[in-house]
What we know:
Blueprint lengths: L18 H46 L4 H22 L2 E13 L6 E4 L19 E12 L16 E10 L17
Antiparallel strand pairs: 1-2, 1-3, 3-4
Helix pairs in contact: 1-2
Amino acid sequence: MKVSQKPGPGEGARNRRGHAMSEFATALIVLISFIFMPLLNISIIPVRYLMAQGVLNELSHRVVLCDKRSEASAMFAGDGSVWSKSLLSKCGVTVSNPKLILTIFGKEPADKLVVSAGDTIPAEWLPDGAKAPNLYSMELSADCAIAPFVECTPGLPGFTSPITMRLKAASPWENFGRDPATQEYYVNE
Length: 189
């Protein structure tokens, strides 16, 4: 009977120390490709959402600080487009369909009047009108398409294509004075 010898390190024996490396590399690629990258891709959406909502809140506050409602509308049309076009578009948020309205809330829960930018407020809804006291609120709204970090062709909203949200912001109107020349309320000019 012949006794066999163990092969030496260079004579065909397998080294068992590195066998798990190939399995670990495959698992790591799957982990990065199918779990980490999609999570990274959608994790930017809440950050961009908060930035867009912050810009709308800031713009709504700046609009109500104007003297007249016509100035507020002009500022929203001019300065609002600068904010949405330059700042938010660079951050991955596309703004469309921006609107500015004045909502007046009366004493009763059912009393509510929505006034568009160019319309005048009826006399009974003015600060000294029959339905006074009222709460005047300037409301901004816009459709915002918030893009993920990396966009791809299969359009899964939020993961590979932008998700569209209607964002709103409101601030109370602050100037209830009258124009000395016309005796009209600034909120109605």
